[in-house]
Amino acid sequence: MSDAKFIVSHAPYVHDGSSIAARHYQVLLALVPAAAAGVLQWGQPALAVICLAVGSAIAWELGFTRLARQRPSIGNGSAALIGMTLAMLLPATVPWWLVVTGTFLAVIIGKQIFGGIGANPFNPVVVAMAILGLSWPRLMDFDAMLLAYDPGFAMIEPLTAVKAFGAATAEQFGCLDLFFGRQAGAIGAPFGIWLVLGGLYLTVCGVVRWQIPAAFIAGVFVTATAFHMADPARYAGAGFHLLTGYTLIGAFFLATEDSSSPVNFWAMLIYGFVGGLMTVLIRNIGAYPEGVIYAVMIINVINPLVDKIRPRALGKVT
Amino acid sequence: MAPKKELQLGYALAIVLIVVGVLSFAGYSAKIPDPPLRMIYHTNAGKVLFDHQTHLAADRYGLACADCHHHPEGEDNTMACGACHGGPERHEAIAETCNECHDPDFYDLADVSKRSDAFHDQCIGCHRQFDAGPVECSACHVL
After folding, report:
1. B105 and B43, same structural domain?
2. DSSP letters of A25-77?
3. Do the interacting molecules here have an ipTM over 0.85?
4. What is the C-alpha to C-alpha distance for residues A167 and A171, in angstroms, rounded to an integer?
5. Nearest residue of B to residue A150 by CA position?
6. Using 50, 70 and 90 to split pLDDT, how confident is the model at A3?
7. Quick one: B18 and B74 in the same domain?
8. N or C: where does chain A have the smaller number of CB atoms within 10 Å of the terminal CB?
9. What CA–CA distance (Å, rounded) separates B95 from B118?
10. CATH no. for residue B62?
């Protein structure tokens, strides 16, 4: 990337003394426990997906910067983080070409064509997941992709089961089991315990501000509770929605992506809450059992608008 | 970390991870066990996830293979259902009629239903017989 000009966006800014690369590597570090749990549960295929996703994401970024005659930007860790986050959302048995296509979509289509790091209006991983899900739905279907596994718990994807067969199906999934990742799902997304701990680590470090994940979780909780109270036979409760699918990885790692999320206090709360609300709306009355990907895309769209809700400038005369 | 060191870290990560990833994909894959644990059928009425293991396990339904897989004598009793119950749509690219390839004396072609009919008859029939298991469309088919 050319450094001839240093373009500064408008205030406000958050200073924590760290660098972009340090922030990205901290997020990567926060994802490592969930990734390790995924490899332990799903075995060597999960490791293959994680390695190829991170490696190919860096390769795509390097290739693009070479082609565009820009300075290599792979050192800032953005591409590696994109690859790692994408791997956390994929089934362990996806074919290699889908992983490479996914990282291409995320790095090139989701980020670089918008101008690179800091210029992408959507979370690049979410863009890639949306395209992959629409293009190869059977390869993104956990029920179809995990037929080789018998890990000792119910191997039906919980959100799909509840959407198809009603809320009573949720009773076969214990909350603790779901929280510890004992559910059919992606490589890293089911492991709520490690995602929450990773997210809290990032919050304490100042990489993630608490308002977005807290509001996202509150949005899921309030909306799912309202649906459940209206029709308990059809809609599962808030605990189920919080611990299944991409909810926790969405709250801590997808909705909080730097470029596509707001920075003002009330804006972050609104952004996060709408994300949680849309997640449950899509799950309960939409066409898809999982709603986090599209919910995050929607809040990415409203991000510039809600971020206009900012404190009044000191001494401003209207 | 200095930018040069960050760049070197990026190169090293990419090379190591791509090599490990390619080797892992080439050397290891999740093999579907035989007999299968679960089977998924993608149909016009949505997908159906069939729990093969539950039907087979001695502490669950404890079915024998031949209870469901009914093949001619001497045939491999684990052959895929669709090998016979393919129906015209499975073979129409190969031949116009069954008798072009199959010996009509070997079995009565009229008895060989297409796969969806065979599955519906088999599954629903057994569930009704033992008053256990789903019989409604929406209890198996996930749209």
Report:
1. yes
2. HHHHHHHHHHHHHHHHHH-HHHHHHHHHHHHHHHHHHHHHHHHTT----GGGS
3. no
4. 8
5. B37
6. low
7. no
8. C
9. 22
10. 3.90.10.10
Q: Are residues B18 and B85 in the same domain?
A: no
Written as one letter, the residue type at B52 is H
Q: B92 is in which domain, residue-wise?
A: 39-142
- C-alpha pair distances (Å), B130 with each of A175, A179, B137: 33, 37, 18
Q: Are residues B138 and B92 in the same domain?
A: yes
Q: Is residue A149 within 8 angstroms of chain B, CB to CB?
A: yes
- Give the number of domains in chain B: 2
Do B66 and B109 share a domain, yes or no?
A: yes
Closest among B106, B17, B67, B136 to A52, alpha carbons compared:
B17
A54 contacts in B (CB within 8 Å)?
13-14, 17
Rounded CA-CA distance B106/A116 in Å is 67
- Quick check: B37 and A148 CB within 8 A? yes
- CB B32 within 8 Å of CB B125: no
What percent of chain B is modeled with pLDDT above 90?
20
Indicate whether B118 and B80 sit together in one domain: yes
B137 touches A at CB < 8 Å = no
* Nearest CA-CA partner of B87 in B99, B77, B98, B101: B98
| Predicted confidence (pLDDT) at residue B82 exceeds the cutoff of 80 | no
Contact at CB, B15 and A55, closer than 8 angstroms: yes
> Domain check: are B3 and B72 in the same one?
no
Span A273-287, pLDDT tens digits: 999 999 999 999 999
Q: Is the same domain home to B112 and B76? A: yes
Mean pLDDT of chain A: 93
> d(Cα B109, Cα B88) in Å, to the nearest integer?
11
Q: For B83-100, how does the pLDDT look when each residue is reduced to its tens digit (9 = 90+)?
A: 777 655 555 555 555 666
CB pairs under 8 A between A and B: 115
